[in-house]
Design brief:
The protein is an alpha+beta fold. The chain is 40% helix and 24% strand. A hairpin with a 7-residue loop joins β3 and β4. The chain is globular.
């Protein structure tokens, strides 16, 4: 499960006032919830994009800090997707994920990568050979 933070000065509830509707627009009908870090995340067992096997997503509140977005996408093996002729769906899957994350966080893929690199560099428990 990855947690994503918002752009400076922005809040998740302002960017996505209706998380349930937004999640359904991007990934398909919500089939249940799952507990995570003192909250309930949405589960999509049969996402509309055939590349996705299961999607878990939602807001993770933190006392005294900004909420974060939690997202976990299980994907089908590439060989299986290609064998079924869903190559276009694979291209769409990348766009769906990136578009959703950019709408939610206000950060594009490059900004999210840079942020994750900084968090690893600042982590005192990270191995020394991680650059």
């Amino acid at each position: 499960m990855r947690e994503y933070k918002m752009r400076r000065g922005e809040y998740l509830e302002e960017r996505i006032p209706d998380m349930e509707a937004t999640v359904e627009d991007y990934f398909g009908p919500i089939t249940g919830t799952e507990p995570y870090e003192h909250t309930e995340l949405f589960i999509i067992e049969d996402p509309t994009n055939p590349v996705f096997k299961r999607v878990t997503v939602g807001t993770v509140p933190y006392d005294g800090k900004k909420d974060k977005l939690a997202l976990d996408i299980e994907e089908r093996p590439a060989e299986e997707v290609i064998a079924e002729g869903d190559v276009e769906a694979a291209e769409d899957a990348v766009s769906i994920k990136n578009d959703f994350l950019e709408e939610a966080t206000g950060r594009d893929a490059k900004a999210r990568r840079d942020s994750m690199k900084r968090s690893v560099e600042d982590d005192p428990d990270a191995p020394d050979d991680v650059a």
